[in-house]
Amino acid sequence: MSKVTETVFEVDLNALRHNFEYLRSKLQPGTKFLAVVKAYAYGHGAPTTALFLEELGVDYFAVAYTGEGIELREAGVQAPVIVLHPQPTHFEDILRYKLEPSLYSKGVLQRFASVAEIRGLHEYPVHLKFNTGLNRLGFDSGDVEKVVAFIKQHTAVKPVSLFSHLAASEDPKELDFSRSQISDFKQIAERFESLAGFRPLLHQCNTSGILCYPEAHFDMVRSGIGLYGYGNSPEYSTQLQPVGSLKSVISQLHRLEKGQSLGYNRGFIAEKTTVTATLPIGHADGIGRQYGKGKSSVLVNGQVAPILGNVCMDMLMIDVTDIDCREGDEVIIFGKNHSAEELAASAGTISYELITAISRRVKRVYKR
């Protein structure tokens, strides 16, 4: 692809294909694959990303909120879409767009069933979330009997899956805790099947769970960050390919003499003659102030250029004193040779936060 002339987020769909095929290769035949495309597909653009994954054979999609599911439907996505954290005020929209809610408490189950009954529906697909230790959302293990009794009395809805979420699947120090979660979920599923007389799909593994706990793949697995190129450990990240590359350009070069300052609050004071470059990207685009003041760097013509001073809303400045560059040259904020994991770590955060923070005003460019 030619050099960029503005700030863009390049999305390599070939890398997305590679990651999907790598993760799927870890599964037994017949195990379904759910792609998590919440948060605008982790910043990569949900409609295009989901449509491409649908072509590849993804069985299910998951989003966090109803509006994200509606965006997929309006883009033409036909596969089932789970809404992981639905709000009752959106239940009518969920039905209108044929989305499938995750129901995680007695109140939410009752309210959704009531809306479905008013609409005259029968066995509308829902997903029941059980808490096994993340302690965020979900029925408790002791709720199984009450949930089954309710489902038997209200046939407007039918659970098509039971699921839970591992809390620390990427952490080898939490091996015992993860295995206890898996054991608890198995017991919940067995109890549900015994009482209900049928077995819904079971799923518990996220990306790290897919890679570390094959015994817990059950009927379906869920992958978010792994699809986009990050495996939560060096061992697996080397097998995956970063899908997104955030690029910008040099708008202007400045020469600072010793003692001169740069940016808001004089966030950088030159200790020697320094050449700086200004880029059209800032904290409104997702590169927060925590990356400034020399903590983080970008690449200019393959060379490392530290970010100087305070990151502005629409601009940031870098040190190019020892780099042969000119106005209009391309700058890699992160990408295949300077990963989002590296950039995020330099500011004390994680790749998830960095890539999902990329503003929608940054143009997405898809490379197929």
Summarize it.
With 368 residues, the protein is of the alpha/beta class. It contains twelve helices and 19 strands.
Description:
The chain has 368 residues and is of the alpha/beta class. The protein folds into 2 domains: 198 residues, Alanine racemase (TIM Barrel, Alpha-Beta Barrel), CATH 3.20.20; 124 residues, Lyase, Ornithine Decarboxylase, Chain A, domain 1 (Beta Barrel), CATH 2.40.37. 30% of the residues lie in helices and 23% in strands. Helix 1 crosses helix 3, helix 3 packs across helix 4 and helix 7 runs parallel beside helix 8. The termini are close together.
> Beta-sheet strand percentage?
15-25%
> What is the total number of structural domains?
2
CATH class of the largest domain reads: Alpha Beta
CATH topology of the largest domain, what is it called? TIM Barrel
Unreliable stretches: none
> In the CATH hierarchy, what is the superfamily of the largest domain?
Alanine racemase
Shape: elongated
Helix content: 25-40%
Radius of gyration: 24 Å
